[in-house]
Design brief:
2 domains
Length: 154
């Protein structure tokens, strides 16, 4: 899934303005400008649109974890240079303090039924024999379910 789409959805989901988006990056010790944030959030066909890099998206998700769960002691995790849908899903799960049951429930709310084993396969390391790749549609549905839940409680 396009990281810019994920970023747009997360901004809407948490109702962040530009300065709050910049603060999420700052939570992971990474400074960004308002212009950078605005260009990442523009639609793909806009002339000023800039594709967010995997590392920058990883920094944002690490910052979201720090914002929602608090900073952990010691050095901050190094952002990944290559970010897959599985990693995005894992970081969202950590940030939202969700268990496999919560992810399963989110997916059920969007009409997708997954067993606990299928959910746990998404969070395994890529070399594991039961690893399952997180497809774009699955990540989209998790984001949609999260958005629905957060917007109901807002």
């Amino acid at each position: 899934m396009n990281h810019n789409d994920v970023l747009r959805r997360l901004r809407y989901m948490f109702d962040f303005d530009d300065s709050q988006m910049m603060d999420v990056f700052a939570q992971a010790d990474h400074a960004v400008t308002r212009e950078q944030v605005c260009n990442w959030l523009k639609q793909d066909d806009d002339a000023e649109f800039v594709k967010i890099k995997d590392r920058e998206m990883a920094v944002f998700l690490n910052g979201l974890i720090n914002l929602r769960r608090g900073r952990r002691d010691g050095p901050q995790p190094e952002p990944e240079n290559r970010l897959t849908n599985n990693m995005v899903l894992m970081k969202l799960r950590i940030a939202m303090n969700m268990q496999s049951d919560d992810v399963q429930s989110l997916l059920a709310d969007t009409g997708l039924n997954f067993s606990k084993h299928e959910i746990s396969a998404l969070f395994r390391k890529p070399g594991h024999k039961h690893y399952r790749e997180c497809e774009d549609q699955l990540l989209r549905n998790v984001l949609k379910g999260l958005q629905t839940r957060l917007r109901q409680h807002a």
